Amino acid sequence: MFSVKELVESVPLTSLPSNYIFGNTESNRHCLLMEPEETVPIIDFSLLTSHDPHQRSKTITQLGNACLNWGFFMVINHGVAETLRDEMVRETESFFDLRGEEKKQYAGKKLFDPIRCGTSFNANVDKTLLWRDYLKIHVHPHFNAPAKPSGFSKVLQEYCEKTGEMANELLRGISESLGLEERYINEKLGVESSESHQLFVANMYPPCPQPELAMGLPPHSDHGLLTILMQNGIQGLQVMHKGKWVLINPLPNSFLVNTGDHMEILTNGKYKSVLHRAVVNNKATRISIGTAHGPPLDTLVSPAKELVADDAGQAYLGITYRNYLELQQSKSLSGKSCLDRLRFSM
Question: Which PROSITE patterns match (predicted)?
Answer without folding.
Answer: FE2OG_OXY
